[in-house]
Amino acid sequence: MTSHKTTQTMKPATAAKKLGVYLEATPAEFREGAVSRSELNALQSDPPQWLRELRRDGPHPRPVVAAKLDVSIAGLARGGVTEALTTEQIEALKQEGPEWLRRERATQAEVRKETTRIKERDEERAARSDDA
């Protein structure tokens, strides 16, 4: 019995997500075909010009926009940002510093602080149970 190795492929949307780019801004040939694991690896290790430009200038998908603004994706939605933004638009938002952005950044900071507190508490409990 011989084993046949099949090429693992993914939809362009999945590949765009893994590459951290907005699918609608990618070239048509990328959007229209399946992407193999080896093609994805090649794009990650040696990105073509279009990918470098997209990562640098955008438009960026919401998870990337949220990370660049230091807010959650839900915070973006609460702030009324539902579309992909370019790096220039993100920088302009940072400069403007609207109230919703300050509020969401504060919320995100509280969430991070609480996550750290819970992690430390759980580690302390685990250490105590190991000692017992």
Structure commentary:
The chain is mainly alpha-helical and 132 residues long. The chain contains eight helices and two strands, in the order βααβαααααα. Strands 1-2 form a two-stranded antiparallel ribbon.
List the helices and strands and how they pair.
Elements: E1 9-10, H1 12-19, H2 28-32, E2 35-36, H3 37-45, H4 49-57, H5 62-69, H6 73-78, H7 87-96, H8 99-131
Antiparallel strand pairs: 1-2
Task: Name some characteristics of this structure.
132 residues, mainly alpha, two-stranded antiparallel sheet, flat
The string of secondary-structure elements, in order, is EHHEHHHHHH
The radius of gyration is 20 Å
Spatially, the strands of the biggest sheet line up as: 1-2
Number of DSSP strand runs: 2
Secondary structural class = mainly alpha
Average predicted confidence as pLDDT? 90
Strand content range: under 5%
* Low-confidence region ranges: none
Helix content: 55-70%
Q: Given the structure, what is the number of helices?
A: 8
